[in-house]
Amino acid sequence: MANLYKRALEKLKSYQKRYFNFRLFIWLIAINILSVNVIASATTSSIYEIKQIAGIIVGGTAMLIIALIDYNFILKFYWLIYLLNLALLVAVKIFGENHKGAQRWIDFGIVQIQPSEFAKIFIILFFAKLLMKYKDKINTFKTIFIVGLLFVIPLLLVYKQPDLSTSIVIIFIFCVIMYIAGLSYKIIAGFFVAAVPVVMIVIYLLLQPNQNIIDEYQFNRLIGFYDEDNEIAQKINYQQDNSVMAIGSGGLWGKGLNNDSEDSVKNGNYISEAQTDFIFTIVGEELGFVGTVSVIVLIGLITFECFYTAAHAPDLAGRIICCGVGALIAFQAFVNIGVATRLLPNTGIPLPFVSYGLSSLLSLFIGMGVVFNVGLHHKKIL
Q1: Does the pTM of the predicted model rise above 0.90?
Q2: Pair 351, 337: CB distance under 8 Å
Q3: How far apart, in whole angstroms, are the C-alpha atoms of residue 336 and residue 351?
Q4: What is the spatial distance between Cα 313 and Cα 53, in angstroms, rounded to a whole number?
Q5: Is pLDDT at 211 greater than 80 in this prediction?
Q6: Going by C-beta distance under 8 Å and a sequence separation of 6 or more, which residues neighbour residue 305?
């Protein structure tokens, strides 16, 4: 035990502390302060605000602890991380709470966890180690087949919850990871060429009567978005139409947090569960254009710092982790804001660090903790 403590202390002393990313730390503090205030304004119950603050404290503490643990040590347990991921995704199918036809949460009484949120980070960590181990064979058929198979298993478990939106996020992360790992441009081009007929076939099958590829509510969201004259479109688009109206009514500075304005879309309860998927709507209505730009800029800065850390990472695993986490944050923000502004179909993707949701928040803090540690192994670019 004494030797273990001594080695840990020596490792801490070896870190290049001047490379601790204080800029990233400040951006995270800023966006979480904003999050708590907007969530408090979006709901009538203080329980959401209290839980979010608790999540920030627990998640922030975990992030700082993980930041001091050598990421190479964490990656030694990459198969354990993979198996833990599968175990949680299987457990949610067996013990999960069914809510509106979806089985995505495991209820522990005091708190519910959503394994698919942690799956995003676990997948990044697992493939960071696996792809670094086989980086010289990344373009061989055998490696691509094995990597693809190992990816498809957790992907299908998430998709069958059903959770199409998270599945799309995971696919995007995987594509970024494979690109960073050095997948040949010829192979990438080949995948794109092969994907065109596959996508066309899937679209054709989706349009068939009684299709069973996606659930009815998912199908209705897509149809409602692309065909506004459809009978069900008005009901499906209700949330998004009100969201656009709310954001537009905020003007430059917004109506103010916790306002009692009678013409407020939020106060009229025209947006349900506004503290989660439509939190950007509250930002737009109550903090106006300045508030929405502030959120976008903060997310942009956090994403930039992830990629900056990746550029100075000492090895491929570090680059994959930082780019994977950065891509996750950027893509989720893009989709969430796209839904709130009705540029994309309604999906149910949270806005990173801003939406209420402890599983999303904790998983992101874990990811950021590893990014911070990669930064402590800073490598100068010649």
Answers
A1: yes
A2: yes
A3: 6
A4: 32
A5: no
A6: 21, 23, 24, 27, 371
Task: Label residue 227 by pLDDT band (50, 70, 90).
Answer: low
pLDDT at 95 over 50: yes
221 in a structural domain? yes
pLDDT at 12 over 70: no
Tell whether 34 is covered by a domain.
yes
290-320 pLDDT tens trace: 999 999 999 999 999 999 999 999 999 999 9
Is it the case that residue 253 has pLDDT exceeding 90? yes
* Tally of structural domains, the chain: 1
Structure tokens given for 91: 């457990």
User: Residue 100: inside a domain, yes or no?
Assistant: yes
What 3 state SS string does the chain have?
CHHHHHHHHHHHHHCCHHHCCHHHHHHHHHHHHHHHHHHHHHCCCCHHHHHHHHHHHHHHHHHHHHHCCCHHHHHCCHHHHHHHHHHHHHHHHHHCEEECCEEEEEECCCCEECHHHHHHHHHHHHHHHHHHHCHHHCCCHHHHHHHHHHHHHHHHHHHCCCCHHHHHHHHHHHHHHHHHHCCCHHHHHHHHHHHHHHHHHHHHHHCCCCCCCCCHHHHHHHHHHHCCCCCCHHHHCHHHHHHHHHHHHCCCCCCCCCCCCCCCCCCCCCCCCCCCCCHHHHHHHHHHHHHHHHHHHHHHHHHHHHHHHHHCCCCHHHHHHHHHHHHHHHHHHHHHHHHHCCCCCCCCCCCCCCCCCHHHHHHHHHHHHHHHHHHHCCCCCC
Residue range of the domain that includes 366:
20-376
pLDDT averaged over the chain?
88
Structural domain contains residue 271: yes
Q: Which residue has the higher pLDDT, 379 or 59?
A: 59
The 10s digit of each residue's pLDDT in 339-360 is: 999 898 888 899 999 999 999 9
Enter the tokens of residue 204: 């054709």
| Angstrom distance (rounded) from CA 173 to CA 88 | 20
What is the rounded CA–CA span in Å between residue 204 and residue 196?
12
pLDDT at 128 over 90: yes
Apex CA 45: angle with CA 41 and CA 48, to 5°?
A: 75
**Closest alpha carbon to 237 in 248, 221, 252, 253:** 221
